[in-house]
Design a protein that fits this description.
The complex is a heterodimer of chains A (505) and B (420). By secondary structure, chain A is an alpha/beta fold. Chain A has 23 helices and 13 strands. Helices cover 46% and strands 12% of the residues of chain A. In chain A, helix 3 crosses helix 9 and helix 15 packs parallel to helix 22. The longest helix of chain A has 22 residues. The N and C termini of chain A lie far apart (57 Å). Chain B has 3 domains: 133 residues, 3-Layer(aba) Sandwich (Rossmann fold), CATH 3.40.50.1980; 111 residues, Nitrogenase molybdenum iron protein domain (Rossmann fold, 3-Layer(aba) Sandwich), CATH 3.40.50; 138 residues, Rossmann fold (3-Layer(aba) Sandwich). Chain B contains 18 helices and 14 strands. In chain B, the strands form 3 sheets. A 5-stranded parallel β-sheet of chain B has the order 11-10-9-12-13, sandwiched between helices. In chain B, helix 11 crosses helix 14. Classes of the chains: A alpha/beta (505), B alpha/beta (420).
Chain lengths: 505, 420
């Protein structure tokens, strides 16, 4: 086999460049024209654990297609073994294939952990994955831990695949882990399984350290299998995510280890309560964490000092941007940007533009949408803005309204920026904030102020070649044909609820 | 060996690729969302962003117990109502196939309300690899073809895949060359309209590219009395001449040697400009990885005309030809791997000391690890777009292939992938 064998390890190989992300984030992906299944989420999680190997228990297509991640198509799971289920397995069962597959996976890669990811086929034929996993470990044929992600939709919590792998880790891998001794106050930071763990946590680690709160582990940042066994040693799981993970509840039940969610969108819709970013939002998060750990006394002066310093620096930076009229497109809460510009940077929100199709695909009711918009408008008014609200405007109507509102800068998603440029308007792409700055901490607002100032200094690009295409009037970043596919996806998938505000098919 | 790290996809993707080449078609994948998302993503990343074509039937988890055929009917109706395609293909994927959803019944139930034909195909992942899905879908199109009188001097080009790198430029080059020789293309299966599919029987000759679509060509031959000729994918000068000669012979037509001489003269002028580099290519150890319809012909070109040493030739996805025989008795016996496990293929390529891989995006990591160049010549190519008129096929393609090969070697990226 040669030396090369040692180097091949199923995992996540990433071409980690901002420019890659920039060119791929414009794909009409998640719930736009398609929806990735549980395998993608499960893989993304497993492949962030060094020493862990996924084994797809299913036909070849379930492995080959999933090599390309919907979330990051440029980062490919180059090596992804599967049990290659064929029609005879569908009739007679796939347990033998799984048994042999586990043994071969162990022999081939010598991993510390194998995570079996089941598929529609193996789920439907009713293979007893737990029994096979137990058997191969008990017999000594596989001398590493084997856990399985069945995509059972644990706790009906979304991000099914990712959720399920986390759950399997706590429930299966750490099944016998006792309540540990916890000598010093420390937390786990739980991030998305992506490449931005450092960006999201570096400043938090520093501030928490000054507050006397240590970090047990960051999941996932260079995480290896032994790190998983350290999970119960923290006093608190801090989820840097928009919703709790069901495995957090399980961890609390097993080890008395509570969870804190920085952006509790499952509990609130108020933009102030769910926004963990900016100077005010971050100060609240740090105080909340301190509160969970009984560290308020130590934390308060530290936070006050850092916040005061940040506010003083921001005062200088925002001189050139405060009061500028900004239109916010496609969601006030998207990465928390809307609130930051009106609250922290004191810009004036002159227009809020909503395109509700994706919300509808998420089965948000008309009433819920109205309430969401009401809360967001109210939040801007709290900071002295009085924006025009446009609900699913057609492209021309929108541009006219933005110009009439005196818009000086448009904050929008990457895929929409071109058309505001064509209309002679300056833009700032939410992508830049999301990629580099969307984190809890005091520096990100300062960075954002500098970037917005730079965006205001840039002339719009009015000669873009993209103007040559014919766009849909209600989905103005999509060609007419693409807009039909997007509408069809929503309508077919969500039935009559999809297309609630749309009638342009 | 049970575990298998695949270099190819399942029937769904093969069938999808065949149908999506029909410009006015739409595909309904009767599946859970993951299957459709994979198919759409492959299409979007293969430079087909304005025409995703593949719609999910919307099968939900709760329907996995009770059946979801009703989803097929409503999806087909919605697709017809809003897109008015010339052809709708419903592809039954693994989950509903195991559940026993009757997609043929669901299609029959709505067919009379829809003014486009609706075809239903079994495309469950466990039923077979992608090339089988491709062959079956292409063969199923024969059912829509209508008998017609023959147009002399015209051909059907069968086995063309529009998502291969440089595919449309390749097709334009094939048309150019054939046009210069007085050969008309009646229909390209598949890069055509559905009306053109129906007109297939008008051609005098079926031209099977690299062995892809052979079962379709055979069926057309039986039903409409059209002979087949198997041609290489026209990579390089020799394959191109072979391609043209076989087609002209099949049509009983004299070939214009002056045209070929003129084209060769153009190639010569290009070669003169980089001949020192080309001299250096001779004997370079390489691996060639790709789909059956392209990889052998590319290897012949690379070995004979560039002079590289093809240490490993891996057929990532097969077709209807007898590749096992080729493996044992063919010109490249000893070097050919047929639909290998990727792990084992990587081992073999690594131990062969190759300096350049002709392959797909899926060989990117291996190339990085071996510090070898990677030139993308076969599906899936997801990390390069392909929109310009720079073919790899035909006489014009020779210089593009040489140019890209040399550039791949002399212009290596400053930073490549990093392992997490």
């Amino acid at each position: 086999m040669g030396d090369h064998k040692k180097e091949i390890m199923p995992g996540f190989y990433e071409d980690n460049r901002k420019s890659q992300e920039r060119l791929h984030c414009t794909l009409p992906g998640h719930r736009g024209m398609f929806l990735p299944g549980k395998i993608t989420g499960a893989l993304t999680t497993v492949c962030r654990i060094g020493g862990a190997v996924p084994l797809i228990h299913g036909p070849v297509g379930c492995a080959f297609q999933r090599k390309v991640s919907v979330f990051k198509p440029y980062s490919i799971f180059y090596d992804l073994p599967c049990t290659n289920l064929r029609d005879h397995n569908i009739v007679f069962g796939g347990e033998d294939a799984l048994r042999e597959g586990l043994i071969e996976t162990y022999e081939r890669y010598r991993p510390e952990l194998i995570v079996v990811i089941t598929t529609c086929s193996s789920d439907l034929i009713g293979d007893n994955v737990p029994a096979v996993a137990r058997e191969v470990q008990a017999s000594g044929a596989v001398r590493c831990k084997v856990i399985y992600s069945s995509g059972d939709f644990v706790g009906m919590a979304k991000r099914v695949g990712a959720q399920d792998v986390f759950y399997a880790i706590v429930d299966q891998l750490l099944a016998d882990q006792p309540v540990p001794e916890r000598p010093s106050t420390c937390v786990n930071l739980i991030t998305h399984c992506d490449d931005r763990a450092r960006m999201k946590t570096d400043e938090m680690v520093s501030v928490l350290g000054r507050m006397g709160i240590g970090i047990n582990r960051i999941y996932f940042d260079q995480t290896i299998v032994p790190d998983l066994y350290d999970l119960p040693r923290a006093h608190l799981n801090v989820f840097l995510l928009g919703a709790p993970m069901v495995w957090g509840d399980l961890a609390e039940k097993k080890w008395g280890m509570p969870s804190y969610v920085i952006s509790p969108t499952h509990e609130f819709t108020d933009p102030e309560k769910i926004n963990p970013y900016g100077i005010e939002g971050s100060a609240k998060v740090f105080m909340d964490i301190a509160g969970c750990l009984g560290k308020e006394q130590t934390a308060a002066p530290v936070i006050r000092e850092i916040k005061g310093d940040a506010l003083a620096r921001l005062e200088v930076l925002k001189k050139d941007i405060a009061g500028k009229r900004v239109a916010i497109i496609g969601g006030f809460n998207f990465h928390g940007m809307g609130l930051l510009v009106v609250r922290d940077l004191r810009m004036k929100a002159c227009a809020l533009v909503y395109r509700t199709q994706r919300n509808e695909h998420h089965q948000l009711s008309k009433d819920a949408l109205r309430e969401k918009i009401r809360l967001e408008v109210s939040a801007t008014k709290n900071y002295g803005s009085d924006p025009v609200v446009l609900l699913n405007p057609d492209a021309d109507e929108e541009i006219r309204a933005l110009k009439a509102a005196g818009t000086e800068l448009v904050i929008c998603r990457s895929e929409e920026a071109f058309r505001y440029h064509l209309a002679g308007m300056k833009t700032y792409s939410v992508f830049n904030f999301a990629y580099d700055h969307a984190r809890v901490g005091f520096e990100n607002t300062l960075d954002l102020a500098a970037e917005i100032k730079a965006a205001l200094d840039q002339a719009p690009r009015e000669s873009l070649l993209l103007k040559m295409l014919d766009y849909d009037s209600l989905n103005p970043n999509l060609t007419r044909r693409s807009a039909k596919y997007q509408d069809l996806f929503g309508m077919i998938r969500e039935g009559e609820k999809g297309g609630m505000f749309h009638d342009h098919l | 060996m049970t575990i298998y790290d695949p270099l190819h996809d399942c029937k769904l993707i093969g069938a999808t690729r065949a149908i999506c080449g029909i410009r006015d078609s739409a595909v309904v994948a009767h599946s859970r969302p993951g299957c459709q998302s994979g198919a759409v993503l492959l299409r979007a990343l293969s430079s087909q962003q304005d025409d995703m074509k593949i719609i999910c039937s919307g099968l939900k988890g709760k329907e996995m117990a009770l059946g979801g055929d009703f989803r097929v009917s409503s999806a087909v109706e919605a697709v017809w109502k809003h897109l008015h395609p010339g052809l709708i293909a419903v592809l039954n994927c693994s989950a509903p196939s195991i559940m026993g959803d009757d997609i043929h019944g669901a299609v029959a139930a709505v067919q009379e309300d829809i003014q486009a034909p609706v075809m239903a195909l079994e495309a469950a992942g466990y039923e077979g690899p992608d090339w089988m899905g491709y062959e079956e879908a292409l063969a199923a199109l024969v059912g829509f073809m209508t008998p017609a009188s023959k147009k002399t001097g015209t051909i059907n080009l069968i086995g063309f895949k529009d998502d291969q790198p440089r595919a449309l430029a390749d097709l334009a080059e094939m048309k150019r060359m054939l046009g210069a020789l007085g050969v008309g293309i009646n229909t390209v299966l598949t890069a055509c309209s559905f009306e053109a599919v129906k007109r297939v029987p008008q051609a005098s000759l079926n031209v099977v590219l690299g062995g892809d679509g052979l079962s379709c060509a055979n069926r057309i031959g039986e039903l409409f009395d059209i002979p087949n000729v198997m041609v290489p994918y026209p990579f390089g000068m020799n394959n191109t001449i072979d391609f043209l000669e076989k087609i002209c012979a099949g049509l009983d037509k004299a070939i214009d040697r002056d045209f070929i001489a003129l084209e060769q003269e153009k190639i010569k002028k290009g070669i003169e400009r980089i001949y020192y580099h080309l001299q250096g290519l001779v004997g370079m150890p390489v691996a060639v990885v790709g789909e059956a319809g392209r990889v052998r012909d590319f290897s012949v070109f690379a070995s004979d005309e560039m002079g590289v040493d093809a240490k490993v030739i891996a057929i990532s996805s097969a077709n209807g030809l007898d590749w096992e025989r080729e493996k044992h008795d063919g010109r490249f016996s000893g070097s050919i791997l047929v639909t290998p496990d990727k792990f084992e293929m990587d081992q073999k390529i690594a131990s062969a000391g190759v300096e350049l891989i002709f392959g797909s995006t899926m060989e990117r990591k291996l190339a990085h690890e071996l510090d070898a160049g990677l030139m993308r010549i076969s599906f899936p190519v997801l990390d390069m777009v392909s929109i310009s008129s720079a073919p790899y096929a035909g006489f014009t393609g020779v210089l593009h292939l040489l140019e890209t090969t040399v550039n791949t070697i002399i212009s290596r990226p400053e930073k490549d992938i990093q392992r997490i």
